[in-house]
Amino acid sequence: MANNPLQDITGTILLAGAGKMGGAMLTGWLSGGLDPRRVAVIDPHLSPEITALAARGVALNPDATTLGPVETLVVAVKPQMFRGAGARLKAFVSDRTSVVSIMAGTTIASLQEVCGGAVVRAMPNTPAAIGRGITVAVAANNVSTTQRAVADALLRATGLVEWVEDEGLMDAVTAVSGSGPAYVFLLAEELARAGVEAGLPEALATKLARETVAGSGELLHRSELPSSTLRQNVTSPGGTTAAALGVLMGEPGLRDLMIRAIAAATQRSKELAK
């Protein structure tokens, strides 16, 4: 049987922030085999689902004097709340602690200033809630091989992980994959709206749009073909799909809109990091 890196974790994992993303990570850890007794959660507004985990051994809102320094601190609070929460979190950090952040627009330097420790900056996305997320991570120079492996195991519990060496790429990563699910949901929304405009009943148009986007995404996931090839496979010369793509791929078209959208999101991520 293949080795499970989550089961090999021996230190304490402290999760700061158990909202949608933090809660999804915690669910992935426990279902993936991480010992609940090695997990602690800090959140002023614990959901009933998280509170119930105390019965399995998860420590809830522990005091630093009781818990002591942790092996890994995973920071999943809202970025605007981070500096306010940082003083409390720093009490759990020692020279041997790695700090894994999933906060958008929060730099390694900011994390080192507020929390200390060996910092891994990561950007997941919301499909992590169903184990189908993708996360991009970058490690500070003082992150050890072991610390990186633990961070990778924790992040991989909710989907794929890609590591980069250049932190400067994280703003564009945020714009493409971090914000990307919203673009896909907007596609489903507007496809349904266009269906209604074409004469379909709203309920039918909505179902057709949702299932088309979801099914196409699953096909893209399972296929090894490039997305351009999958698109071409649907498109008969002179047919209905070609007529629609003539609009979407025209000038200005979807390509121009997407370039502008990603540029705007990238710029905003840079502004938030200041």
What value does the Rg take, in angstroms?
21 Å
User: Strand percentage, roughly?
Assistant: 5-15%
**Unreliable spans:** none
Cα shape: elongated
Helicity level: 40-55%
CATH class of the largest domain: Alpha Beta
Helix and strand composition category = alpha/beta
Count of all domains: 2
**Amino-to-carboxy terminus distance:** 46 Å
CATH H-tier superfamily of the largest domain: NAD(P)-binding Rossmann-like Domain
Q: What is the helix/strand order?
A: EHEHEHEHEHEEHEHHHHHH
Tally of helical segments? 12
CATH architecture of the largest domain: 3-Layer(aba) Sandwich
Question: How are the strands of the largest sheet arranged?
Answer: 3-2-1-4-5-6-7-8
The name of the CATH topology of the largest domain is: Rossmann fold
State the major sheet: 8 strands, mixed
- Total number of beta strands: 8
* Averaged pLDDT: 94
Blueprint (SSEs and pairs):
Elements lengths: L12 E4 L3 H12 L7 E4 L5 H4 L7 E2 L3 H4 L4 E4 L6 H9 L7 E4 L6 H7 L3 E6 L9 E7 L5 H12 L2 E5 L6 H9 L1 H18 L4 H21 L4 H8 L5 H9 L5 H20 L1
Parallel strand pairs: 1-2, 1-4, 2-3, 4-5, 5-6, 7-8
Antiparallel strand pairs: 6-7
Helix pairs in contact: 7-12, 8-9
Protein name: Pyrroline-5-carboxylate reductase
Main location: cytoplasm
Function: Catalyzes the reduction of 1-pyrroline-5-carboxylate (PCA) to L-proline.
